[in-house]
Amino acid sequence: MSEPTFCQSCGMPMREPQDFGGGRQDNLYCVHCSDEQGTLKPYEVVLEGMKDFAMRSMGVSEAEALQMAREGMARLPAWQNVQA
Amino acid sequence: MPTRAETKQETRLKILAAAKAELVENGLLNVSTLEIARRAGVAHGTVFFHFQNKEALLQEVLDRELLQVTNDLYLRLHGPHDLVEMLHIYLDFLEREEGFFVVIAREKPFYPPEFRRIILGREAAVRSYFYEALEQGIAQGIYKQVDPSMALAFLFATLDDYLRLRQAYVSEGSVIRARRQALVETFIKFLSTKE
Question: Is A11 within 8 Å of A72 (Cβ atoms)?
Answer without folding.
Answer: yes
